[in-house]
Every structure is written in C-alpha cells, then in structure tokens.
Amino acid sequence: MTAPATPAPAARPAPAQRRDVAPLLLVPLLALAALPLIGDLSTWITLTAAGLAMGMIIFIIASGLTLVFGLMDVLNFGHGAFISVGAYAAAVLAPSLSGLTQTDSLVLNIVALLALIALAMAVTGALGYAFERIIIMPVYGQHLKQILVTVGGLIVAEQLIIAVFGPVQIALPLPAAFRGSIVFGDVAIERYRVIAVAVGLVVFAAMLLVLGRTKIGLLIRAGVENGEMVEALGYHIRRLFVGVFIAGSALAGLGGVMWGFYREALTPAMGMDVMVLVFIVVVIGGLGSVGGCFIGALLVAVTANYTGFLAPKLALGSNILLMALILLWRSRGLYPVAKR
Amino acid sequence: MSSDTAPLLTLTGVNTHIGPYHILQGVDFAVPRGSLTMLLGRNGAGKTTTLRTIMGLWHASAGAVRFDGADITAWATPDIAQAGIAYVPENMGIFADLTVRDNLLLAARSGPIDETRLRWIFGLFPALERFWSLAAGVLSGGQKQMLSIARAIIEPRRLFLIDEPTKGLAPAIIANMIEAFRELKKNPDTTILVVEQNFLFAKSLGDAVAVMDNGRVVHAGAMAALAEDRGLQQRLLGLSLDQHQ
Ligand SMILES: Nc1ncnc2c1ncn2[C@@H]1O[C@H](COP(=O)(O)OP(=O)(O)O)[C@@H](O)[C@H]1O
Ligand SMILES: [Mg+2]
Questions:
Q1: What predicted TM-score, i.e. pTM, was given to this entire model?
Q2: Is this prediction's ipTM beyond 0.95?
C-alpha cells in the first residue's frame, strides 16, 4: 500500500495538533506516589515489576475486547472463556514439550512458549469464529440479549472445562529457564515477569503497527468511529468485525497462557476471575481505544499490587475506586473514541 | 445496462419507515445521466432520508430504487457503494482520529491514490494539501466538508450523493464549493444529486431540480424554470423575494 508522499510544507501554519499526554503520566505518578507509602525500594521495585507484568497480560486480554466493543457495540462477557481455553490448551500440550521446557536453555524454553502460544491462539481463534457465528450473530444490536447469551457461553465453557479436566486446579509449571529471579544488588525481579512485559510490549507494538500503518488497521479505527461511513465507502464492516473478533479471541487465548504461567496453576474459573479486571480496564481506557486500554491495564494491575501489599483487604475495592476516579476526571475513559 | 438516455437513478414509490415513523411516503423522481440534480425542500421534508435510502442505510419498505437498470433497493450499503455511488453525508462522516491522508486512503478503495487525481483535488481544495498529515478532527467545518467531498471524488464514481454541502459554511467557502462543483461538472459522465437549502447555490449549479415536502416529491423539472418562476419558488420553498437576493 503506497500513498503519495507528504506534500511540501505549507506556507500557512497548520492548526496545532493536540497531543493528549496527561494519561501517559498516570502510571509513573502512581508509582512515585506509592514509593513513600511502601517505604522500601526493593519491595517497591518488586511490586512495580509484578504490576507491570500483570498489566501487560491484562492488556493482551483486554485489547481484543475493547475493539470488539468499539467496532460493533458488542458486549462480550464470553471473552473470559477464551482466557481459560487458551490456558488449558497450553496445559494439554505442555507435557509433550517437556524436552524443551525441562532444559535450562532459554532459547529452547522460548521455542516451547511460542509453540504453546501458537496452539492456544489457534484453538481460541477457531473457537472465537464459532462463538461469533453461533452466539453473537443472532443478537446484534441487542445489548441485554448479548449479556445473557455471552454470560451463558462463558458458563458453558467453564462447565465443559470442569467436565474434561475436573474442578480442581491443575499445574502449569514454568519452563526451567523462566524460573528464579534476575538480581541486581538487593533487588530481585522474577524472570517470568520480564518475559511477560516483553510479550506485552510486542503485542502492543504489533497492534499499533497494524492499526496505524495498514489499511485493515485504518478501517478498524475508522469503523470504531463511524461504522456506517465505512460501509458507505464500500467496505463490509461485518467481515472486518469477524476478523477482529477472531483476533481478539486469539489474543485472549495468548493472555490465558501468559496468565496461567504467571500463576503456575489453572482453574476452570480463571477466565471469569480475570474478566472483572478486564472490564474495569476497558472502561477506564475508553471503549474502543487500544492506547487507553494499555494505560488502563497497567494502572489497574499496578494499583492491585500496591494495595495488595499495603492493604490486602482493599484489593478489588481499590480498582473500583480507581475506575470511579478516572471516570470523574474523564467520563468516557482516558482516550474516548470520537463517535459519529 | 440500460440505454444511455434512461436516467441513471430512478426512485419509484419509495416508502421508508424509521422505527415507527413513516418518513418517505412514495417518493418518485429520476436523476438524468450527466446532470447535476438539486433536491430541495424545507427542513424535515425527507431529503436526507431519501439519500440514506438510496445508499441502503435505511431500507425502503415499498417501492424501488434503480441504479443504471439494476434494482438496488434491498442491496447492502457496501455493495451499493461498490456499484459506483459515492456519498457525502449531512454530518460529513469524516474519521476524526485519522489523518486527512488516511481518510482519503480509505476512500480510494481500489488501490493507491492516483497522484494526478490527488493534484486535481488539491487544486480544488488547497487546505487538504496543507493539512495532509493532521488528524481530520482538527479541521474547520469547511475543511471537513472539503475532505468529505474529496473522499467521494478520490476515485471516479458514477453517481455522487451530496447532502447539504454548504451547511454552516462561510460565504467565501461557499464560493470555493461552487467553483469545485463547476469543475466536477466539466466531466460529462459525472452525475450528481445534491441536497440543498441554499437556493442561490442550487440555482447557480443545478440542471434539474426536485422539491420534496412531507416525504414526497412535489415538483420536478428543469432548474432554470424554477429559477425564473418566483411564484413557484414561493409556493414550493416558501422563499420570499429578499431571502434569495
Ligand atoms: N433517525 C430518525 N428517527 C426518527 N425520525 C427521524 C430520523 N431521521 C429523520 N427523522 C424524521 O424524518 C423526517 C425527515 O427527516 P430528514 O430526511 O432528515 O429531512 P431533511 O433532510 O429534508 O431535513 C423528519 O421529520 C425527521 O424528524
Ligand atoms: Mg437533511
């Protein structure tokens, strides 16, 4: 896809392009504010690293959901099912990759992780396609029914997992080289957290690239803003949406694998548990905004880790409080998408 | 394909409901090939609903919309667009978060933007060249209107539906719009249907005219005839003499 080069600079100055940076400062400010409360630098670093890692995983899960909502106004509570299914798919394949995961070779471990991710994404992507056709398609434009059928889908998925794997938690041990910590002086950061941050950044960068630089990405952004106009320009937004739904489901599967390894254990309800945070993130970020979703995910996870340490009883409440504060500041989320 | 003398677009007995409301109540009119047809009528007469029904954004509950012989009444909007109809909605429908460039890139459905055509558009609307890589949301109302029209003409299309291109624009920009439409009309294959409230604008550009009231077309004919007949204007549009001087 080529476009004409940018024309020569204009004689008359262009109107100032508003760059909205305030939300970018939230995570650093929150981290700085927490430092004196926590008191101890190495504890603070540990908590912050944990928060960032968890935030990246939540972002991976939430990014697909926010686009699905933005593009077609579809409230998909069933998204949580893809988290669990992705994680369980990885747990099924993991034993047969033990040759790769039991060695201390970081490279072989990464190959194994990528294989597990590929499988989980393929399974959840395919499941997402079926879910869209069978469950979502009949209830377009009907929010109440969407909530009912997608929650129903989530419950069915959870029960199917219980039927196959049993109700108790199963282990998903980390590959050997991902265990332990990287130590700088008296500060230790768990290796897997670094890996989770790296995976999250790769996903974020890939999404920005696709959304900013490709025609499909431009169509998705345009569709979030004004789907009717995208159709009037001659594009079938339904087809675009199915693609986004599949990609979003696959990303939830990827997030499920990362989350499963983070906890090193899977439970049938893990998807539903994470969804509470995911919805808070999507609302905080601004429905349909990937950038807002990224910041929102980091905020929510860092807040959860700080309060988990400072006042464990307030952990979930703190995120609801966070959401309330953000919505008081910006009632439609950090980066509200301009709607027609 | 029908013969070259048949109208490009024909509406016969078109009825459109929006929810419980019966908005279009049997719209009949035709847009001749190669003409600029003005669709006039007071606020709420059903002009926008007519364009949206042609585009498939509302679907007619009765009657037929024919485009170049094909019955497009039940077609989906993207298919109607792909048949060669470009639409400039009343609210302009620009993508505010996308740059001017990306707005045009999406409108150029069949591939990269044609460089010569882009130069031609920059000639019509120089502001678009100046603000090429800015988010379209920061443009002024007039510039957004230019972008919306540029999107429609970035590739050759067979029919242009343009809803109130002068709405809310300053006189200087309206003059720019008139020039742009004159330039568009130079191509004899261009067929345009424009909804207007500004009678001066309509009079200076229109070849044919249809006037709507209460969800029906109540008059259709040559623009020149309506322009000369003040009594008819008065009756159809409620224009007083001084309003259109
Ligand atoms: N989305 C809608 N819901 C309900 N009524 C509508 C809607 N859009 C238009 N109408 C009604 O349909 C009539 C025609 O509207 P419209 O086609 O926009 O008129 P015009 O473009 O000629 O001003 C008006 O009475 C308007 O109130
Ligand atoms: Mg109108």
A1: 0.89
A2: no
